[in-house]
Amino acid sequence: MDSTPVPSSSSSAFDLVSRALGRYIPRGGAGAGTTDAQEHRGARQPAPDDRAAGHHEQILGAVNLNQDLMITRRNLDAPVFAGLDVEAGKPFVDLLPPWDVPTVTRRLRQVVETGEAHVARIQRLRRRDGSELVVSLSILPAAAPEGGLTVSMIAMARRLHLYAAETAIGTSLDIGETAQSLAESLLAWGDVAAVDLDFAVWTGEGVTGQVQRRIRLRRAALVPDRAWPEGYVTPGDDLPSDASRLLAQAVLRNDAPQTIVIPDREAVERLLQSPRVVRALVPVDRSAGVACIPLVLDGVPPLVLGVAEVWRRADCPFRDSELLDLQELVARTAHHVDLARQHQREHTQVLALQRRLLPRTGGDTIAIASVYQPATPDSAGVGGDWVNSFPLPDGRTALVVGDVVGHGLGAAATMGQLSMEARALLSAGLAPDEVLEHLDETVTLLDDAESGLTAGYSALGSTCCIALYDPVTHEVALSSAGHLPPVLVTPDGHAGPLVLRPHPGLGAEFALREPFDVHTFAVPPGSLLALYTDGLVEDPALSIDEGIDRLAEVVSTVHPWDALQQAARHVVSALAPVRQRDDVTLLLARMIGYREGDTATWRLPARLDAPARARARVFSLLGQWGTRDETRDEMVLLVSELVTNAVRFATGPLTVRLIRSGNGLLCEVGDTGNGRPRLRRGDLLADGGRGLSVVHRLTTRWGVRWTDTGKVVWAEVAR
Fold this sequence. Notes:
This protein has 17 helices and 25 strands. It has a five-stranded antiparallel β-sheet, sandwiched between helices. A hairpin with a 4-residue loop joins strand 24 and strand 25. The longest helix has 38 residues.
C-alpha cells in the first residue's frame, strides 16, 4: 500500500509515527511475515514460510484525519494492514463494525474538542473481504495549524497480545474489573468474549473442589459494549440454571476442568436444547461457534472459579495454537481472580462491620443522620473511619467519630474494639477526656511487639472525637484526640468549626502525651452539629482549613425543616472528591433538647431536712404533670432514698433534677462526694444497704456518672 510522502520539516504526530515506520518497515515489505492475526482472521494474503527476510512482525501503522473525521493521509505499509479500505477522502468510521461506530466516534470527537489523547484501546477493524483485524488504537491530536487527528494502530500479534494482556490483567483488586480486563483481552480471538464466575467467587465466599449439584454462575464481564438482544445475559445477571449446569458439566468432564469447543450454531443449539438458554448465551443470530475455557485455580483437587467464553463465526474455526494461547491467558488470570475474590471477601466483612457501627436513629431530644461512603475497592479494603451515636442511660446522647490508621481487617478490628470500648466507658459514666485516656492506652497496648507490629499493622496516630449532648442544659461537652474539629451551625445561621486545643492522636509517645481537655459549648435547640473524617474535607487543591470552611458553608444551607438524612447525603455529594482516595464519613446531629416545662432542678443544702424538702417538691411537680398515683409514690420514695444517701455519705450542696421523657421519669441527685455507691448482697433491713436495694427494685435502671465536682446518681422509673 502506498504511503503519502511526509515533509521532513513537519513535526505532527502522524509524521513522527511515519518516520518511525520508515525506519522499522523494510522497503517493499516483501519479506514481512504474516501475523497470527492475519491467519485467524482469514486474510487472503500470501504468507511465505521463511521469516528470515523480515524477522520482525510488521504491526505498526498510522492514519491522519481532518476535523470531519475524514482520512487525509495514511501510512500502512505493514502487510498485516492489507485489505483495509483507507483511501483518502473516506470516513474513518467506515473501517469499524457498525456497532462500534457510536463509541469510537464519540472518542474521536472528544480528542478533537479537548486535545487530550485517547491511548491504547482494543478495537476491531473491517477488511474488504469481511474479515476483521484486532488492533490497539490510540487517538492523538494533530499539531497546529494542520489540526485534526492522528490515529496510530498496533496490530495485536499473538505473542504481543499475550504480553499486553498479562500487563493489563491483575492491576485491580476489584473482581469485576479483573474479569473485564480478561474479557477485553480475549476479544482478540473472537467476536464476543464473556466471563462467567461462580456466584461464591463473585461474592468473595470460599469455593470447594467438589462439584455441586446446583451450580450458579453470574456474568462478570462482556465485550464489546453494545446493545444486546432481549433475553441475553449481560454483566450482573445470573445465567439460567440450565445454562449454568450445562457449562459446568461441559468444562468439568470426568470431574477434570477442560477446554471445550462447540464449532457451530447447530452444535450449540443441540447442546443447550432450550431456546431460552440459547437466547441467554448465544450473542448473535448468525452461525457461531464458541470456545469455553475454565478459570482453574491449581490445587488438589483443582478449583474451577468460572468459565471464559469466546464466540466467533463458524467459518473461522479455532486452531490448536489459538486454543493453547487462550488457555495460557485464562490460566494466568485465574490467580488474579482468586486474589480479587479474597479482597472482595475482606472488603465485604469490613464493610459489614463498618455498617454495623453506624448510628441507627436519634431520640426525643436529638435527631441523627449519618453517611458512610467507602473509598473504591482498589484502596485494598475499607478504611478505619467510624461514627457512632447512642443514648446514655442518664438522658444524654454520645456522639463519637474516629479514624483508625490504615485499611483492611487490621484497621477494622481496631476500629471495632475502640468503638465498643468507647461506648462501654461512656455508658459507665466516664467523662470524654477519661474515655480518651483509656483509648490512648488501648492503642498503645495493641501496638506492642507481639500483637501489633509483628502482625504488620499499627494503629498509632489514630484519631477520635467524643461529644456528649445534655438536652437539659443544652450544652455539648467535647474532647478530641488529634481529630478535626466539629462544625456547629447555630439557629441564627452562624456556622464554623469549634475551637479546640490541638492534641496528638491516640498512642503518642509517652513524652509527647498531654492531658485531654474537655471543651463545653452552648448548643441552643435547633443547632446542627457535624462530625466527620478527613476524607470529606481533604482536597489537593485546598488547605485543610479551606476544606473545613467549605463544609461549614454547605452545612449552613441545611434548613431546619429538611429531612436530616437527605441533607447529610447532599453535604457528602457536594464535598466528596470525585476520585475518592479515603473513606468519607459524616454525622449530622440536630439538637432538640427537652422543653422547659419537662425539667425541674433544685439545689438543696446537705442537711437532715433535705429529704423531706425534696419529697415535697417532687410530689407537687408530679401532681402538676398529671402522673399516676402509683408512679408518683414510687418517684417520691426514690428521690427520698437518693437524697438521704447523699446527705449521709457526701458533702456540699445537693442538686436534684427531675426530667419527664417519652419513656418515663428520670431523677438525678448530684453531690460533691467521690465514693461510688454499690449494691451489695445481704439483709435488706441492714442499715448500710437498704437505700440502694430500694432504688434497684423501684427503677428500670440506675447508675452513676462522674463530674468535675463529684458525682451524679441517676435512676429511671417507667411512666
